[in-house]
């Protein structure tokens, strides 16, 4: 009962402060950007400037090959000379160029690139071109086969694929910072002392704050996930996952804040925690980069569990395992925080 | 420890507390007893250790050294039920600024497991009923202080801790607060008052403890303190050669008693008042320190 009373008071105070509205505005802005600015699928349209110094027959052959082999979204523009290609590339920094000429009775291919391309990209381009040319040799038979380890893997649209990152950073871990702010505001106002001389317990106080963060996270999470995910969203596991992950983030914030007596002193550590947790988004967008250190961060499994929520056939085992692990970890950290605050709350 | 009706409400011995645990003590070897229904004042200047002592007794600060019991509970093993019996009015107002006065009291009221007082009744008592539905952050400092004071009564405490209850209040409001404290005293509430206001301590307390630099120097009733340490004086105004003269003479010192008799027998007396030492004068005499 005391927990409910304290929670009701805290939620009323939360709606009278600005933090909750900032979070909601952030969620609405994010949704607006995703829906009206970010395309559902990213396309990689680019231009290739080509100059040919070839006899007429070779010229026609090369032009045919270039237009046949070009990917969708690639525009080929024919120019008079290599200098013209270079001049155009200086104006269009996203484009690439090719100059094809005859040198000592051999066809010479010169790729003209911007300079910022990775060595890896240059090599892939070179190999792809060689492959394409080899295929045009009479009698060439392609024996290449591609095997996918997971042929059933389901892909999210580029737009929805961005939602888990936002959910983890805004609806889950922003609570880490805000809950600490709430605690320090109470310390500053002295109301924490007034609460401490009532029969209510410290865990009532802490759990009420976590409850407020869960409500905030749920509001912002639902705004984001429902607006962007629509019918693709699996509502029940989503709410469960969101609440557990948000609770975990909030109790982590409580524990960190328990070691400091002002928000100024705690700020550095809270910022560091959020910064570290946000590292996992790099691995999320670039799965080949996922060192053990990043995989150990709590935000890593959370990101992939949130991703599952939007798949047509989600891996419920992965979702509920994540829920279970963070429910247990959250409870342990909450008990630790309660122990810390019982010793330090009024000092 | 079992509480009986004769058992003291507060009994502490050798209380020592250090904020930094570096050997520098905020209070040292404090010991005193407060009986049921008694008003006990800790009188001392700022930083003397009054609030630290109250902090330990109310469970806000951990007991580092010493022993004691408050309202029947051992200070080493305080349970939450203690807070149904005690009320604490803080020196610094600490109310939720974004909640109204009524909402503040309504919230705290629900945290107790004992009979409580209606918020409006308390607000009327401290003269805040007309602003019951205004947010506390629109209140003046004095109004916030009254709200904090009112909140401390909400659970009808048996033991009431008051930290500087009239500081910063205008005389009329301070007088109202003093009247409320007197009413509670007559109703049998045990009161522990911490203050640097010697008039307040003198007016309300059954016994007073002088605390300086974390050490309790002396505990006694205001009357005994005045009898023991106050020099009884007489201030006399008389006519001499057509002019009014004033002299203050000791009733203890022989030569001054003789001088008084001389004045009475030889001159026309206009006024004559006995004058006792104030607590502040006694405090300075006993501790060698002022109260500010």
Q: How many runs of DSSP E, i.e. beta strands of chain B? A: 13
Morphology call of chain B:
globular
Q: What is the CA–CA distance across the termini of chain A?
A: 27 Å
Q: Based on CA inertia axes, which overall geometry of chain A fits?
A: elongated
Q: Termini distance of chain B?
A: 38 Å
User: Residue ranges of chain A: pLDDT <50 for 5 or more in a row?
Assistant: none
Provide structural commentary.
The complex is a heterodimer of chains A (347) and B (292). Chain A is α/β, with parallel strands linked by helices. Chain A has 2 domains: 2-39 and 157-344, no CATH class; 46-134. Chain A contains 16 helices and 4 strands. Chain A has helices spanning 2-15, 19-36, 56-69, 82-91, 119-135, 158-161, 163-172, 174-189, 191-196, 202-229, 235-257, 263-278, 280-285, 292-295, 299-309, 316-344, and strands spanning 46-53, 74-79, 96-103, 106-112. Chain A has a 4-stranded mixed beta sheet with strand order 2-1-3-4, sandwiched between helices. In chain A, strand 1 (46-53), helix 3 (56-69) and strand 2 (74-79) form a beta-alpha-beta unit. In chain A, 33% of the residues are buried. Chain B is built from 10 helices and 13 strands. In chain B, strand 4 and strand 5 (73-74) form a beta hairpin. Chain A binds chain B through residues 1-2, 5-6, 9, 12-13, 16-17, 189-191, 193-201, 343, 346-347, and chain B through 55, 58-62, 80-81, 83-84, 86-88, 90, 92-99, 103, 107-108, 110-113, 148, 151.
């Amino acid at each position: 009962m005391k927990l409910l009373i304290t929670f009701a008071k805290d939620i009323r105070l939360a709606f009278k402060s600005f933090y909750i509205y900032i979070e909601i505005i952030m969620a609405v802005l994010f949704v607006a950007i995703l829906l009206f600015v970010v395309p559902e699928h990213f396309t990689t349209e680019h231009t290739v400037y080509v100059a040919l110094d070839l006899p007429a027959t070779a010229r026609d052959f090369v032009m045919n090959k270039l237009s046949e082999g070009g990917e969708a979204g690639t525009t080929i523009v024919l120019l008079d000379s290599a200098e013209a290609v270079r001049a155009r590339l200086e104006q269009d920094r996203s484009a690439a160029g090719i100059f094809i000429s005859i040198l000592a009775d051999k066809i010479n291919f010169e790729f003209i690139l911007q300079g910022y391309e990775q060595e890896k990209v240059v090599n892939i381009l070179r190999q792809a071109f060689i492959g394409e040319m080899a295929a045009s040799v009479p009698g060439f038979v392609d024996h290449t086969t591609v095997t996918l380890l997971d042929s059933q893997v389901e892909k999210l649209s580029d737009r929805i694929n961005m939602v888990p990152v936002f959910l983890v950073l805004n609806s889950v871990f922003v609570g880490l910072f805000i809950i600490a702010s709430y605690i320090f505001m109470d310390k500053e106002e002295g109301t924490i002392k007034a609460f401490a001389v009532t029969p209510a317990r410290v865990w009532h106080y802490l759990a009420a704050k976590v409850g407020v963060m869960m409500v905030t996270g749920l509001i912002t999470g639902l705004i984001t996930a429902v607006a962007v995910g629509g019918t693709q969203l699996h509502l029940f596991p989503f709410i469960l996952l969101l609440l557990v992950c948000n609770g975990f983030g909030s109790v982590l914030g409580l524990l960190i804040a328990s070691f400091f007596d002002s928000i100024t002193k705690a700020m550095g550590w809270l910022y560091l925690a959020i910064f570290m947790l946000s590292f996992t988004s790099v691995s999320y967008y670039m799965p080949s980069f996922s060192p053990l250190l990043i995989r150990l961060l709590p935000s890593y499994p959370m990101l992939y569990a949130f991703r599952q929520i939007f798949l047509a056939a989600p891996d419920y085992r992965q979702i509920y395992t994540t829920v279970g692990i963070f429910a247990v970890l959250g409870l342990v950290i909450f008990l630790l925080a309660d122990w810390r605050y019982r010793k330090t709350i009024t000092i | 420890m079992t509480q009986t009706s004769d058992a003291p409400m507060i009994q502490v011995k050798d209380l020592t507390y250090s904020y930094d645990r570096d050997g520098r003590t905020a209070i040292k070897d404090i010991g005193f007893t407060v009986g049921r229904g008694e008003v006990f004042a800790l009188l001392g200047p700022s930083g003397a250790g009054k609030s630290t002592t109250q902090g330990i007794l109310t469970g806000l600060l951990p007991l580092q050294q010493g022993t004691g019991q408050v309202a029947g509970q051992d200070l080493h093993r305080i349970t939450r039920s203690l807070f149904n019996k005690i009320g604490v009015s803080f020196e610094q107002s600490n109310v939720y600024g974004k909640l109204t006065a009524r909402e503040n009291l309504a919230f705290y009221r629900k945290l107790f497991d004992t009979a409580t007082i209606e918020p409006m009744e308390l607000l009327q008592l401290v003269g805040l009923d007309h602003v019951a539905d205004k947010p506390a952050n629109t209140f003046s400092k004095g109004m916030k202080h009254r709200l904090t004071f009112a909140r401390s009564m909400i659970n009808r405490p048996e033991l009431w801790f008051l930290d500087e209850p009239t500081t910063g209040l205008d005389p009329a409001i301070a007088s109202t607060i003093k009247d409320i404290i007197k009413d509670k005293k007559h109703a049998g509430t045990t009161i522990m008052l911490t203050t640097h206001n010697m008039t307040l301590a003198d007016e309300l307390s059954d016994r007073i403890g002088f605390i300086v630099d974390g050490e309790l120097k002396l505990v006694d009733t205001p009357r005994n303190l005045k009898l023991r340490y106050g020099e009884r004086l007489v201030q006399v105004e008389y006519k001499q050669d057509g002019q009014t003269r004033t002299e203050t003479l000791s009733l203890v010192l022989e030569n001054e008693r003789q001088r008084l008799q001389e004045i009475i027998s030889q001159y026309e007396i206009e006024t004559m008042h006995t004058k006792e030492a104030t607590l502040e004068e006694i405090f300075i005499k006993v501790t060698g320190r002022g109260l500010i």
